[in-house]
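Summary for the steering committee. The consortium agreed at its last meeting that each partner would contribute one worked example illustrating the joint modelling workflow. Our contribution is presented below. We chose a case with several input lines so that the handling of multiple components could be demonstrated. No manual editing was applied between input and output; the record is shown as generated.
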Amino acid sequence: MPKSITDRQGLTEGQFLESYDPGSYERPSVTVDMLIFTVMNREQDNYRKLPDKSLQLLLIKRGEHPCLGQWALPGGFVSINESLEDAARRELFSETNIDNIYMEQLFTWGAVERDPRMRVISSSYMALVDRSSLRVQAGDDADDAAWFDVAYEVVEEKHIPLEQGYEAERLIRITLRHGEISLSGVVSLKETVQGPVRKLTREIIERGEIAFDHLIMIQYAIERLRGKVEYTDIIFNLMPSLFTLSELQRVYEIILGKELLAAAFRRKIADKVAETDESTRDAGHRPSKLYRYKLLPHQLHS
Amino acid sequence: MPKSITDRQGLTEGQFLESYDPGSYERPSVTVDMLIFTVMNREQDNYRKLPDKSLQLLLIKRGEHPCLGQWALPGGFVSINESLEDAARRELFSETNIDNIYMEQLFTWGAVERDPRMRVISSSYMALVDRSSLRVQAGDDADDAAWFDVAYEVVEEKHIPLEQGYEAERLIRITLRHGEISLSGVVSLKETVQGPVRKLTREIIERGEIAFDHLIMIQYAIERLRGKVEYTDIIFNLMPSLFTLSELQRVYEIILGKELLAAAFRRKIADKVAETDESTRDAGHRPSKLYRYKLLPHQLHS
DNA sequence: TCAAAAGTGTTGAGACTACACCCATGT
DNA sequence: ACATGGGTGTAGTCTCAACACTTTTGA
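What follows is the complete predicted structure of the assembly.
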């Protein structure tokens, strides 16, 4: 019964599709860009202190124009017979060699002049990797991929009241460090409010040798990561299967950029983790129990 | 000093860009699809009762193959010299004739077979409109655009425990009504959990005369709207400039799909609204003060 | 007079903050 | 012994749900 409807030319849907000419107007290229985060231990000077941790992001050194020699997010073109998500997983796998890890779409960037070569629209995806599950560690062999420590700092805040609203601007300095290399740039986050209408714009103020508009993608991703850490369990994607509560707390602190009280923290995450029989040793202080992630009764989040 | 670096062919960035050939490989088309929501009063039988409200979504009746005769989200192609957001605002304006309204990007849909004509990647945007500010009301003149009442109902929930996780499926029936027309379809939301790795997939189970994969976009948008209503002030984009607290409460209830207690509600939103001198009259019961949206000291949300 | 809605007060449960305090270990 | 982190207890604040109750209007 369906599909027998005909259009103004008297064609059925089948006939229409058979004769359909997609036309030759100019189309944008579509790419995916991957924000692959992990957490890494940093050794301490004092034998008693725990190793500190840092949030890290994977970057690739560009070997071609444009932005040659600068650092960029891993990514690539979406081919014509591959879904957006497949493209993202393909890129992810080609960088990390792991398959089944957490990944989510963040945002699609569509400014006309994003790429000087041609019109490119790019979807950014965030992936979280537990460092201990990475066998081939990027940066070991080639010198064109490396994990960068991420620092995120609000350097200025302006607030201009307007009639019926305000304009608030926040400047955020993002610094990425890998050994001797230090990339640092500034993103402006501007919120314009008129009555209930809020509009948020992001702009690069200082690009700091980070390719294209990737600094904006990084800022967006960190913001999203911070948000999601507070109301989902994605953080456990950054943890090894066994961890101490202090380690978990440190990861929260690094992502949120603020210190937490241990007592309150323990109570808050108490029902997300399960104690195991194992514990740490040789730490120069009281050993701590190792925990693992415990699923809560089903939720169904996005 | 910058830009003087040369690549393997000895070209500077300027030279490279000048001679750059974008190639002729097949590119997907890119479109935007708009989810334009508003809230509408529905008259009551009883003179004493307040008018009830409904959440409405704007749909367009397709006059061409494919999906001829079915209803679809308004949208269109992104042209080569127009940003994604500009394309969305253009589509929004062409449907509503309003310019400065709330709009946000939701998600970009990139399955290969979304559109039977050719490969199309589509970004969905959500816009919220206060009904009273709509002058030209879609559906008045043409019969190809109409506001549909939205009903959202969870019809089934499955939960299958697996080793190290579970699979949870939720079937959601979405019914869209406009006068005699009733479109109803079912979307499956499946969450697969293995340890901390969560993967969410959406699938159309029953398409119900709604074009393409637009039913999924609608489900996603409602979910996002529900989420955002709880932790932002976007709901005021759906309200006229003056409103009673009961009206505001009804809009919350429609969006969240559950009833709220008036006492608690009033306290909760107390600092987001400001009393005015005006009040309702002739209502068949005690008049109520009219309120307006009051900005809180600046926040800077996304 | 009375149905319907507007609006206020009270109580108790639970979550989070802040701080104090004790415990266990390896050097 | 002691620095360092592991871990628990308690008191105060805040939010929110639940329910009871009073007030005000127009037909």
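Chain A has five helices and twelve strands. The radius of gyration of chain A is 23 Å.
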